[in-house]
Structures are given as structure tokens and as C-alpha cells.
Amino acid sequence: MAIEKIATEDDxxxxxxxxxxxxxxxxxxxxxxxxxxxxxxxSLRCAIPLSVSRIIFRHALYYFGWDQSNDTIYASGCxxxxxxxxxxxxxxxxxxxxxxxxxxxxxxxxxxxxxxxMHALLGFCTGYMIYDSFMGFIIEVWQPGRGPVLSSDDxxxxxxxxxxxxxxxxxxWVKAGHISAMVLMFFGELSNPFMNLKLILERALEQDCCxxxxxxxxxxxxxxxxxxxCYIICRVFAASFVFPHLTYxxxxxxxxxxxxxxxxxxxxxxxxxxxGSIPMIYTSIDTVKNxxxxxxxxxxxxx
Length: 303
Fold this sequence. Notes:
Number of strands: 2
Oligomer: single chain
Structural class: mainly alpha
Order of helices and strands: HHHHHEEHHHHHH
Number of helices: 11
Radius of gyration: 21 Å
């Protein structure tokens, strides 16, 4: 019904990949954050199927012979992460190509379908952050009598989830800067399926049930190369163009659309994530320089 409604609007150029997002958002009952017109209910509803998927993937791995260890729990989260990125990236690309690229642009004046799609995509990503924080940093690390026990890496990822959610939610609050959030999300999520597959394969190679899968080390090496190349493209080459332009646009034109204190917070978050990726950039460059033959030496097997 909601999809039919889209077709009757004045805008007939709605990208097909966005129609399902728009329909889902419009059909979802609204639950607004207090004092705002930001629908938070869609994010909560997205967190539920993501949580269920993680549990299903975990038991599927048990069924295929994985042991009941933290590695299996971690791998099930990685599979859900692949699903999240694979759903999100096509929608983000369609959004970035459908309107003029101005990172600080105001939402006002955009077609209604575009506004709904933006809320759906940012709400879905926020829902992922909620789900991953709840499952990964509460449920799966809960120790009786102590509560959730987090490592230093857990606290870092939890902080990332909170700050990323605040970035996305604040652009929806001021109704500007959403394009800056989407372009950062796009290049951040583009390499994510390959990264998560790499993490899954690392753990699969340690599982007894996978010891006799002769092609698994080859798949690991090939995926590691693909991930490294994709990561370098996103975090080095694309970032060299995206970050200077985004910074200029937010500081010069953005001050007309959002408070300067908020713009500065956005930029701190942007550059914080970028600088935080430097160690992985160096690792990816070394992986590509060494090539697949060198990488195979550490892949728990021979090509």
C-alpha cells in the first residue's frame, strides 16, 4: 500500500532500491524522542530483527559444527554485520546520487520521498548500533553477579556506536548535514562486508569442523586482498577528496544551516574515526604490497 502511494506522488524518479525503505518507514508506527519530531521507534523495530538474526546465525554455526565458544558468538555478529552493510550501502548510494551533493544541505525543500528514505536509512543504521550495543556489550558479555564485563576494545566500539548514533540523530534533529552523515556511512560501510568476512574466516580456520575444507585458506587470502584494496580506496583515495570538501562545506556553508558548535562536533567525530583507521590503513597497504602469496603463509594452510 505504501509503495503504491509513492507512485502517486509528484516525484516519479524515486530509485527502486529506496521504495522498500520508504514503505517500511511510512508503515512503521511513530515513537518520537521527547521534545523532538525524530521518530525513534523505527530504529528500535530494526534492532529486533537484527538481534533475532544474530541468534539464528549463532545456532546455524553450532549446527554446522562450530564449538560453543566466544569465536562462534563473534562470528554470528559478523554475519549480521554483513547483512546490515549489504542492505545499507545500495540505499545510501541511491540517496547520494539522487540529489545535489552538498554535505551541509538542509532537508527542507527535498522531496518527501527523499526525506522519508533518509529517516529510514539513518534510523536503520541507528537501530544496528542499538542492537549491537545491547547484544555485544550487555547480553553476550554478561557474567552472573558482575553484570557486563567489557574489555578496552569493547569500550572503544561502544563509544563509536554512541557517537555515531548521536551524529546521525543530530542531523535529523537540525534537519541539515544528513548528506555528510550518509557519505561517511557509505565509505565506512563499503568495505565492511569484506572486513567481517575476513574476521569470520579467521575464526573458521580455527574450528575443527573446518580443518578439512581445503579451499578455505585460499578464500581467506583472496578476501583479505579484496578487503585491503577496498579499505585503501575508501580510507585513503576517497577520503582525500571527501574530507577536505566536507570540512570546507560544513564550516563555510554549513553555519547557515546548523549551529557552529554542532558542526565542530561533527568534524571532531569525522576526523576521529579517520585517524583511528590509520593502523588498519598501514596494515592494508602492507597486505597489498606483500601480495596473496605472502599472505598465504599465515592463512593456516597452503594455497
